[in-house]
Amino acid sequence: CVWILWASLPLSAAASGETEAAGEEVFTLSFVGDLTLGTDPHISGGPNSFPSMIGTDYGYPLQNVAEYFLEDDLTLGNFEGVLRSGGYITKENGFSFKGDPAYTAILTQGGVDVVSLANNHSRDYGQRGLENTYSLLEEAGVPGILQNEYRVVETESGLKVGVLALLFQAKPKTVAAAVEAMRREGAQLIVALIHWGVERSYHPSRTQEQLGKALIDAGVHIVCGSHPHVLQKIEEYGDGVIYYSLANFCFGGNRYPSDMDTAIIRQQVIRRADGTVSLGERTIIPACVSSQTPMNNFQPTPYPEGSESYNRVLSKLEGSFSGNPKQQTYPW
């Protein structure tokens, strides 16, 4: 059985390994959207750019949310961009996101544990840029999962989680084979991090809905989406759940995004004595990508409970939001 709690709970309510019933353990996973720890050459200069505001204070970007990530069992997100030394590359059409190699410390100090590298910006600096980013994340102890690949990670509390990274599409038979392979490696919970959907759309496309449900049918417990840069609904299906889009989170790609809403999803996982798992209580923490407005200072911060902004986030995740985004050139 899955419960949805549309409010923030005290951190103590989601303690690792808390006994729910005889022989059961409870674990908490946190999910966030796009982590773009860097910026585009068009906005790389000036005092309000990502490099200027962060400097060498690597704890700054996630300092208002790190308590959730450092306390949980596993934190997952989408790493959108490249880490490399040297200058910027300017694309004729589109944007290229790059951050300093030292920015891996933003993730480690902020408590982010696993990221997907399956997105449309992972090769902004070519295959070498992707490989360099992958290596830097590995050195930092933060697995970066490549497109159509998976990793089985074990939390300090003993939960084995299989994480599959997908970009825009996936064949159900291929996913089912990956799920089976992860289970053979001991995975108890299966997560798919997928980059998909339509940018700036508050509602998932029919293709997203069909694929999301196919992933659950193939054995995935949690599907977590990115790419639209705005929030989309959460949908329970079968024994799993689909977070269609968790929007931007720590996003260095825009100093004035027209939609600054985001959220942290904290999902409890119940493991029974025989090693099988099911999804438990879900906690939603509505947040802003910045601790100030209208400028983005790249510091995600929870909204006050009950505020207009807080309730707006909930409406987006419920699927009832009917507003339209301000038309603006990407990136959001």
Architecture blueprint of SSEs:
Elements: E1 4-5, E2 25-36, H1 50-54, H2 66-71, E3 74-79, E4 82-83, E5 98-99, H3 104-110, E6 114-116, H4 126-140, E7 144-145, E8 150-154, E9 160-167, H5 172-184, E10 189-195, H6 206-217, E11 222-226, E12 234-237, E13 240-243, E14 248-251, E15 261-271, E16 277-288, E17 301-302, H7 308-318
Parallel strand pairs: 1-16, 2-3, 2-14, 3-6, 4-5, 6-7, 9-10, 10-11, 11-13
Antiparallel strand pairs: 2-15, 8-9, 12-13, 15-16, 16-17
Name the features:
17 strands, 332 residues, alpha/beta, 9-stranded mixed β-sheet, disordered N terminus, single chain
Beta strand count: 17
Fraction in helix: 10-25%
> Which stretches are low in confidence, meaning pLDDT under 50 for 5 or more residues running?
1-16, 326-332
The global form is globular
How widely separated are the two ends?
Answer: 36 Å
Q: Describe it for me?
A:
This protein has 332 residues and is an alpha/beta fold. The protein is 21% helix and 27% strand. The protein contains 7 helices and 17 strands. Strands 1, 2, 3, 6, 7, 14, 15, 16 and 17 form a 9-stranded mixed beta sheet that branches. The protein has a 6-stranded mixed beta sheet with strand order 8-9-10-11-13-12, with helices on one face. Strands 4-5 form a two-stranded parallel ribbon. It starts with a strand and ends in a 14-residue tail after the last helix. The N terminus and C terminus are likely disordered.
